[in-house]
Amino acid sequence: MRSIRGASFSMRVGLGPSAPTWVLLQQVVVRGLVAVKFLALGRILGPSAIGSVSIALLAVAIAESLSDTGLPQAVIQGREAPTRSELSAVWTTLTARGTLVALVLIALAPVMNSQFHLGNALALLQLAAALPLIRGLASPAYFVVQRNRGFQHIAGIEMAAAFVDCCIGLAFALSGAGAYSLLIGMVVGDMLKSTLTWTTMKPRPPIRLAWTGIGHYIGFSRWIWAGSVVNLLLNQFDKVVVGKLLGPAQLGAYQMSSKLAQMLLTDAAFAMGQYLFPTFSAQHRHDARVAARRVKLYLAIVAAGLAMFVVLLRMTAEPLFALILGPAWMSAVPLFKIFVINMAIGALIAVLVAYLRAVGDAKATTHASLIQMVILVGIVPPATHYWGVTGIAWSITVGMGSAATWMLYRTLRRHDAPSYPLAS
After folding, report:
1. What is the mean pLDDT of the chain?
2. In 10 A of CB 137, how many CB atoms?
3. pLDDT at 44 over 80
4. How far apart are CA 282 and CA 358, in angstroms?
5. Closest to 274 (Cα-Cα) out of 176, 155, 125
6. TM segments (predicted)?
7. What is the dihedral of CA 389, 391, 395, 398, to 10 degrees?
8. What does the pLDDT look like over 280-306, one tens digit per residue?
9. Residue 348: CB partners within 8 Å, gap ≥ 6?
10. HEC string of the chain?
């Protein structure tokens, strides 16, 4: 293993297994394939079908957030590498969680089908339940590879899964499978990814039921779980409201404007976060002051680039939608102009979250989410009353800006601060 003083923390472009080049390549390929699939299916299927799939995926997101164990992040952030026995306990926990989530989603599918006015989409909701089960079966060696910054290996698996997902989804859509095509592609892609984690990654944990040996992760992971629950309320609340009150077609337009803004702005930052989290974790273990200085440089670069991109996207929103999605989607343009601001803030938050979790201050990100939630509870009702769905979008802007400000404060004040213990 490379020494900490070696190329482990170098940001220069290279092709080594830990080089950030692989993170960039993964971002370009995976997000590019996701964009092709999502936009092509949007044009083929229309707002109503996309809205129906969005509700199915919304159910998965809610269930996964409520049951988030925080174990992957704890394995990456921990001072000591996990043993094979500990990995077996991690796998048992995550598999049990995935199975439970899948069963709950199947049981609740008829209720959701009725509440969101989906018509004959019961099987669509039940198919989505396969996703958390497949993800839970993956090998926890994936988290060890992330911890060791094996970005080349991770990029290969993620790109292969995304390619299969895109091809299968488009093939089924063109053959007339409708809204099911998007979920079928995701299921097959996740199956490939989970299989590759077992066949190509080490150390492979023993496949046995083990429930003990990972108690030392709880102090850190509890804040990850708390953050997931709060973020669930923040990230899915607006979609639930739109889907429940306005139906699948309006939710489809809302989701498309949000998704397009996310693909153009936030996804790159989240990909960078995949590199920064294990890198900051390792750097912080070696020299906390260097990590604190480095995050400020990243934030300055990201903020400058985002500001210019937001201005460009708002100016070209209408021709962009007309070219990519067609006239059926033009009603989503005003929302898109708001969402590009939201997603730019979200990109900054992704960098801040990677650093704060890496230094063991996961509770700071949870506190930021709580601040955002309190603000939304206060301003969403009047904003919705006066401006409808546009008011919801602007309310999210205010809430995200407040959360980012808090995390930035916590980040900047750590310049001379001592390290947080794992259980902080």
Report:
1. 80
2. 18
3. yes
4. 8
5. 155
6. 21-40, 46-66, 87-109, 121-145, 166-189, 209-234, 295-315, 335-356, 368-386
7. 130
8. 777 777 777 777 777 888 888 888 888
9. 269, 299, 302, 303, 306, 404, 408
10. CCCCCCHHHCCCCCCCCCCHHHHHHHHHHHHHHHHHHHHHHHHHHCHHHHHHHHHHHHHHHHHHHHCCCCHHHHHHHCCCCCCHHHHHHHHHHHHHHHHHHHHHHHHHHHHHHHHCCCCCCHHHHHHHCHHHHHHHCCCCHHHHHHHCCCHHHHHHHHHHHHHHHHHHHHHHHHCCCCCHHHHHHHHHHHHHHHHHHHHHCCCCCCCCCCCCCCHHHHHHHHHHHHHHHHHHHHHHHHHHHHHHHHCHHHHHHHHHHHHHHHHHHHHHHHHHHHHHHHHHHHHHHHCHHHHHHHHHHHHHHHHHHHHHHHHHHHHCHHHHHHHHCCHHHHHHHHHHHHHHHHHHHHHHHHHHHHHHHHCCCHHHHHHHHHHHHHHHHHHHHHHHHHHHHHHHHHHHHHHHHHHHHHHHHHHHCCCCCCCCCCCC
Q: Pick from 279, 301, 300: which is nearest to 290 by CA?
A: 279
| Tens-place pLDDT, residues 183-240 | 999 999 999 999 999 999 988 888 887 777 776 676 666 666 666 766 666 667 677 7
Cα–Cα distance for residue pair 146/130, rounded to 1 Å:
25
Task: Quick: pLDDT tens for 53-92.
Answer: 878 887 888 777 777 777 787 788 777 778 888 888 889 8
